[in-house]
């Protein structure tokens, strides 16, 4: 029994501590990988559109920066 006690295990778990943390974990929902990929794809699409708009406005520097950023994010998706 000494080894269990030194590891932090107790014979009776605290009731208020477990109940207080359980609902907090349920409320925090993490996004699935599929949702994250979808958001990244949408961001790549927005960057490409921004690059095209900047090119039409003859702002080539901004267009190049946005295109490079879109390409790097697209590589992360793969």
What does this structure look like?
This protein is an all-alpha fold and 78 residues long. The protein has a domain at 31-78. Helices cover 77% and strands 0% of the residues. The protein has helices at residues 2-6, 15-27, 33-56, 60-77. Helix 3 (33-56) runs antiparallel to helix 4 (60-77). The longest helix has 24 residues, at 33-56. It is rod-shaped, with a radius of gyration of 25 Å. The N and C termini lie far apart (51 Å). 4% of the residues are buried.
Q: Beta fraction of the residues?
A: under 5%
Portion of residues within helices: over 70%
Mean pLDDT: 81
- Please state the overall shape, judged from the principal axes of the Cα atoms: rod-shaped
Helical element count?
4
Number of strands: 0
Structure classification:
mainly alpha
Radius of gyration over C-alpha positions, nearest whole angstrom: 25 Å
End-to-end separation in angstroms reads 51 Å
The helix/strand series, from N terminus to C terminus, equals HHHH
For the largest beta-sheet, the strand count, sense and barrel status come to: none
């Amino acid at each position: 029994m000494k080894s269990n006690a030194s590891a932090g295990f107790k014979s009776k778990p605290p009731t208020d501590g477990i109940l207080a943390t359980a609902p907090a974990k349920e409320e925090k929902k993490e996004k699935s990988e599929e949702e994250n990929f979808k958001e990244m794809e949408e961001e790549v699409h927005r960057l490409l559109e921004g690059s095209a708009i900047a090119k039409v406005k003859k702002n080539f520097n901004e267009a190049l920066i946005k295109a490079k950023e879109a390409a790097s994010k697209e590589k992360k998706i793969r």
